[in-house]
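Thread title: Can someone regenerate the structure for this chain?

I was given the following input by a collaborator and told the matching structure tokens would be attached. They weren't. Posting the sequence so someone can regenerate them.
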Amino acid sequence: MDLNHENATNKLSTTKASARKTVWDSSTHMIFVELCLEEVKIGNRPASHFNKVGWTNLANNLKTRTGKDYTKLQLKNHWDSMKRDWKLYDHLMRIESGLGWDPVKKTINATSEWWDEKIQADPELTKFRGYLAPYKGNDVRYHIPNFRRGQTVAQCAPKGLKETFNYYHSSLRNVIERTFGVWKARWAILKDIHVNYSYETQVDIVIASMALG
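Best answer:
Regenerated them for you:
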């Protein structure tokens, strides 16, 4: 085998393996999204993918913002992955009826039964679940006060698996909401954090304030 051809083949194999192993943290992902939007606005995505100038700009600007080197293949793989996720999300929000979006939790609002059915049909949808919704229905209690209105201990106790899940779900939710309330009250900087600081700085502030308690 020609030595140059063998070296080129090995280099290509190494590049592909590297692309498969690439891990995108949330901060880098958000920066990538911002940079993609910028390239689209200036016309460097004439079709379904970016042109040569667009890919070069993405790699250079991402390195400037994050200090990380990415090959065109790695960037393209992440772009294609985002497109697949969008198609799944678009299907859920446009074709399926009765769904909503929770802007606080940044998740799709749907019942546990609905998620179980959809994920069984397409396991890829698991990534959009994110939040275990409580069971709903006129005969299923959820809020903690509803479990305190019975005359006896037996009447107050959760009945069945669904109410048991709802009871602990609601209890945990109350604890989390109180914890966030105390945290936000202690650190005034959090009030307008989304206005005054970049995304990367917001992440640092959140981590630092939580670490300090």
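The radius of gyration is 24 Å.
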